[in-house]
């Protein structure tokens, strides 16, 4: 079995977002970059499949030189090889999906795993787009995955519960928190990863069809007020305010 | 035409779909286009309701092969309908199904896609979307260069607007079987309450709850207010047995209820990212310096274990959440 794991480099979840001078992109100063948290579940799942039944795991990222960190980390955790597609990995989801599809289409991958969303553009779109471009099955926001002979069963989160999706391989599966508990890299893994080479390829040309033309911080929230007194009085005052001022009820 | 993919539940249009239709009507009026509503399933009974929200045309694909949701079959159906009707804008609600089918359909059409949008406009005949990025820490305006533009609308953001449309019914052929994947079974959780992303009132607990069992008092308050319970990442990761589906924040759900009550939540950037779109925020925390108070419309400095039960009692006495 051959597994591709697509990893995105994203700003750390605790990053305070600042808008760059161009008014439409993220100011990269002070941004700490990490592997997308959901991508970590995708990678862990691939490694577990490899350990359980044997598989070749290829880690891939789209980006510039800094994205190599993500790939180095994937190698340390257990990926067999790593590919950097040199291109804009932070932009339009369809363009990124096209770059990855162009790379993956003749490689014979049985399974493609990625996070259900990055935590930048938050489009949650690359996975299903990649599935369509490759003409394969998909299951998104998956918390449990079982593989059969050329088939899969995936439990995915939906409103108020989950649903079981069955399909044929190859497939694109996007990971959700709960799929597994990602491991930490061992010292041995980190040392071994340093010796491996990351294959670098130019990403296929893929024009962006959805473009960010402006980026702005959310509007400031109006100042609130504190409710004083004993708990019972505070509770009463709050409900009264929500009813009369906010008209929530 | 502006085409809206709609979901039915128990023979009624789901509220997030009705919101998408309402917004679709507004966009159609602004740009002189027709509004189409698209339904698919074993039965599309109830789809006529789309006329109430301004649909000029109601397209239905009915058939046994559509009884269960299939990503590839539905995406193909949606893309084919867009093509057949010459639609230039495709909308769906940003629900589990909408977010599964819309990007796949967009890729099939080579169309630009904006997910979970909070604002839409027609500019020079093309869709323009405003949407939260970095989980609400910033808002991006998205413009499109593709002939067809696709967006999913965030639930609870777009106002429902009733405006009678012609609602001309038109049947579409259902695809023949042989799908790449299909939903075999729905595993519903107990209670059947609305999802956090669609809830009007959310009562959320953080590290200050001290234990998962203590979330009972939040359940009681949520019941009294007609709401549902959420949690911060700190609470979900604390090993208290809370499911991730409850998590609100950058690596959880991004919610926009009318009322968000944060109990024992300090207000880490990670959490704020997921709930700062709430209309009214109430913070209950022992620490008067907790960052959550900076966002709060109403703040209560105090012991949540005293305040929350008092709130429940008072809400029950006032009969809130009954209507």
From TrEMBL, chain A:
> Keywords on this record?
Electron transport, Transport
Q: Residue limits of the Electron transfer flavoprotein alpha/beta-subunit N-terminal domain?
A: 23-210
InterPro entries reported in the protein's UniProt record:
ET-Flavoprotein_bsu_CS, ETF_a/b_N, ETF_b, ETF_beta_N, Rossmann-like_a/b/a_fold
Q: Which family does it belong to?
A: Belongs to the ETF beta-subunit/FixA family.
Q: By its UniProt entry, which PROSITE patterns does this protein fall under?
A: ETF_BETA (PS01065)
Alphabetized Pfam families for the sequence: ETF
The molecule here is called: Electron transfer flavoprotein subunit beta
From TrEMBL, chain B:
Q: List, alphabetically, the CDD domains matched.
A: ETF_alpha (cd01715)
Name-wise, this protein is: Electron transfer flavoprotein subunit alpha
Q: Which domain of life is it from?
A: Bacteria
Family, as annotated: Belongs to the ETF alpha-subunit/FixB family.
Identify the species of origin.
Geothrix rubra
Keyword Amino-acid biosynthesis applies: no
Q: Which Gene3D superfamilies match?
A: HUPs (3.40.50.620), TPP-binding domain (3.40.50.1220)
Q: Which Pfam families match?
A: ETF (PF01012), ETF_alpha (PF00766)
The primary gene name is etfA
InterPro entries for this protein: DHS-like_NAD/FAD-binding_dom (IPR029035), ETF_a/b_N (IPR014730), ETF_a/FixB (IPR001308), ETF_alpha_N (IPR033947), ETF_asu_C (IPR014731), ETF_asu_C_CS (IPR018206), Rossmann-like_a/b/a_fold (IPR014729)
Name the UniProt key words of this record, in alphabetical order: Electron transport, FAD, Flavoprotein, Transport
Residue stretches making up the Electron transfer flavoprotein alpha/beta-subunit N-terminal domain: 2-194
């Amino acid at each position: 079995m051959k597994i591709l794991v697509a990893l995105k480099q994203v700003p750390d979840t605790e990053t305070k977002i600042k808008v760059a001078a161009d008014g439409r992109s993220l100011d990269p100063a002070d941004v700490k970059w990490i592997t997308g948290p959901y991508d970590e579940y995708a990678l862990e799942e691939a490694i577990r499949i490899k350990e359980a039944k044997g598989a070749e795991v290829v880690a891939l990222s789209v980006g510039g030189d800094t994205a190599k960190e993500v790939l180095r980390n994937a190698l340390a955790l257990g990926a067999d090889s790593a590919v950097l597609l040199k291109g804009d990995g932070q932009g339009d989801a369809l363009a990124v999906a096209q770059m990855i599809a162009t790379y993956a289409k003749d490689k014979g991958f049985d399974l493609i795993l990625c996070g259900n969303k990055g935590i930048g553009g938050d489009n949650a779109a690359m996975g299903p787009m990649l599935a369509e471009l490759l003409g394969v099955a998909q299951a998104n926001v998956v918390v449990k995955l079982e593989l059969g002979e050329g088939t899969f069963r995936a439990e995915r989160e939906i409103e108020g519960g989950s649903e079981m999706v069955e399909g044929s391989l190859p497939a694109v599966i996007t990971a959700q928190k709960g799929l597994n508990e990602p491991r930490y890299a061992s010292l041995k893994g980190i040392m071994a990863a340093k010796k491996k080479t990351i294959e670098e390829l130019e990403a296929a040309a893929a024009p962006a069809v959805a473009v960010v033309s402006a980026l702005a911080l959310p509007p400031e929230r109006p100042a609130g007020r504190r409710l004083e007194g004993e708990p019972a009085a505070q509770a009463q005052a709050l409900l009264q305010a929500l009813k009369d001022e906010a008209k929530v009820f | 035409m502006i085409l809206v993919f709609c979901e039915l539940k128990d023979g009624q249009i789901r509220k997030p779909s009705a919101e998408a239709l309402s917004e679709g009507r507004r966009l159609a009026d602004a740009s002189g286009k027709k509004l189409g509503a698209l339904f698919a399933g074993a039965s599309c009974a109830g789809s006529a309701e789309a006329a109430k929200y301004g649909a000029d045309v109601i397209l239905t694909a009915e058939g046994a092969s559509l009884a269960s949701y299939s990503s590839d079959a539905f995406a193909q159906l949606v893309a084919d309908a867009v093509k057949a009707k010459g639609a230039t804008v495709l909308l769906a609600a940003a629900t589990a199904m909408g977010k599964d089918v819309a990007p796949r359909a967009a890729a099939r059409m080579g169309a630009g896609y904006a997910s979970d949008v909070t604002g839409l406009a027609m500019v020079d005949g093309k869709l323009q979307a405003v949407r939260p990025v970095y989980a609400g820490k910033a808002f991006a305006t998205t413009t499109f260069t593709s002939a067809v533009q696709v967006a999913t609308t965030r639930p609870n953001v777009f106002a429902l607007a009733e405006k009678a449309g012609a609602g001309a019914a038109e049947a579409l052929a259902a695809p023949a079987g042989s799908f790449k994947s299909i939903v075999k079974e729905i595993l519903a959780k107990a209670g059947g309450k609305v999802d956090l992303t669609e809830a009007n009132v959310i009562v959320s607990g953080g590290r200050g709850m001290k234990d998962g069992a203590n979330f009972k008092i939040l359940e009681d308050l949520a019941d009294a207010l007609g709401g549902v319970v959420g949690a911060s990442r700190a609470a979900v990761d604390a090993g208290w047995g809370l499911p991730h589906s409850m998590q609100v924040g950058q690596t959880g759900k991004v919610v926009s209820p009318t009322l968000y009550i944060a109990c024992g939540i300090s207000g880490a950037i990670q959490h704020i990212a997921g709930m700062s779109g709430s209309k009214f925020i109430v913070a209950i925390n022992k620490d008067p310096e907790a960052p959550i108070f900076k966002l709060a419309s109403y703040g209560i400095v105090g012991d949540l274990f005293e305040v929350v039960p008092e709130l429940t009692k008072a809400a029950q006495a006032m009969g809130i959440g009954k209507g």
